[in-house]
Write a structure and sequence with these properties.
The protein has 95 residues and is mainly α. It has helices at 5-20, 29-92.
C-alpha cells in the first residue's frame, strides 16, 4: 500500500493549526473546501445583514429622539408657563 506522506502531513498540520486557533467546526477536508468556496459570499452576507440591522437601529433611535424632543419641548413650555404665572402672581401679590 502506498502512502503519500506530504498530503497526510499537510492535513494533520491544518488540523493542528485550526485546533490551536480554537476552530473546531471543520471535521473534514470537504467542509474546509466548502468554507473556502462560500467564504466571500458569507462575508458579504454578514456585512449586508449588519448594515441593514444598523439602519433599522438608527431609524428606531431617530424616531425615539424625535418623540423625546417633542416631550422636552412640551415640558419646557409647561414649565415656562407655570413659572410665568408664578412670577405674575408674585408681582400682583396674590398667592
Amino acid at each position: 500500500m502506498t502512502r503519500i506522506n506530504g498530503q497526510i502531513e499537510s492535513l494533520k498540520r491544518i488540523r493542528e493549526t485550526l485546533d490551536q486557533k480554537g476552530i473546531t467546526w471543520f471535521k473534514t477536508t470537504g467542509q474546509i473546501n466548502k468554507f473556502l468556496k462560500t467564504y466571500e459570499y458569507e462575508k458579504e452576507l454578514l456585512v449586508f445583514n449588519t448594515e441593514r440591522q444598523l439602519e433599522i437601529d438608527l431609524a428606531v433611535l431617530q424616531t425615539k429622539a424625535f418623540f423625546w424632543q417633542k416631550d422636552h419641548e412640551n415640558l419646557k413650555t409647561q414649565t415656562e408657563s407655570h413659572l410665568t404665572n408664578k412670577v405674575q402672581q408674585v408681582k400682583n401679590h396674590t398667592f
